[in-house]
Design brief:
single chain; mainly alpha; globular
Length: 95
């Protein structure tokens, strides 16, 4: 009886990340936003929950400059940081 293990029966098939790849910011278009975010992390002992505004701004910059796919901020976990519609804009819709 052979006890040799056959590892070829299961082959590993790599797959792309769910959100795709993130191109590097070669031209530094979002460098200021990244620097603010990194400074906030450092100043807050790397507690990212205290730097959510800066991270949101950084991601918005990346989306505006096509450095990542556009996503609604709600899907990225920033629903609480989005400005609610003003009462005047709601009344404009009703007229």
């Amino acid at each position: 009886m052979s006890t040799a293990m056959n590892f070829s029966s299961k082959s590993f098939k790599p797959r792309a990340p769910d959100k795709g790849s993130f191109p590097l910011d070669h031209f530094g278009e979002c460098k200021d936003f990244k620097d603010k975010f990194m400074r906030c992390l450092k100043d807050n002992s790397y507690d990212n929950s205290l730097c959510r505004v800066q991270s949101k701004d950084y991601l918005e910059c990346r989306m505006e400059h096509q450095l990542m796919a556009k996503e609604p901020l709600q899907r990225l976990g920033y629903k609480d940081l989005i400005d609610p519609p003003s009462p005047s804009s709601e009344s404009d819709k009703n007229t």
